[in-house]
Amino acid sequence: MSEQNYVTWNPWHGCTKYSEGCRYCYVYRQDEAYGSTISSEQCRKTQNYNLPVKKKRDGSFKVEAGSIVMTCFTSDFLLKDADEWRTDCWEMIKSRPDCMFYFFTKRIERFLECAPADWGDGYDNVIVGCTCENQDRADYRLPIFAKLPIKYKTIIIGPMLGPVNLENYLNSSICEVTCSGESGINVRPLNYDWVLDVRRQCINKGVSFQFHQTGAYFIKDGRMYHVPRRFQAQQARKAGIDYKIVDDYLPDI
Fold it and tell me: Which residue, among 3, 6, 1, has the nearest Cα to 99 in the 3D structure?
């Protein structure tokens, strides 16, 4: 993506754990750290529920035109517990064609039942990321993802829990693949060799690749490193292995 303004929009908070990648979910960890008395499994609307359409005193939108809106990052946009609220969110998304909305999901099999009635072959301002933490989830979720009418698709391997072969799923419909380690205490390590192998697959298939973060425990050349949270994304960038096909795969907004 080119230089953009990034905005976080969490219309609801809380999520039920769904697969192995959820074991040490950062939402649960953050809720505990902040002393929340409400279970992280309890999904509830937030005060920012209508953020995309909120306005300032001068009548302009609080979310500026041209923003990339990172959507529902403390839950899952396709969570069943949020079915009653999602229609409103689609309406807000549709009303802001001047912004791009980006959400990840582990529940990609629910996409069509959760999509708006006028989705057609996809909204021009929505990017959907399918999260796959291991080969088992990749082989289950990505064939479903491949058949869905979505204009901008990304694959997120995070937290990456083992080597993953994506070659059967990489084609021109995938905008980007991202790899990430797992953050937290006593979490599972990320092996750099797994990351490099996914990068190789992406280069061979002509798909953009990004190494997003190392995670707390990072194995390189057979040695385990502990990487503090504040340095995990920085160390991934320092590796210098991102691979971009184009500078910006998104339309002008």
Answer: 6
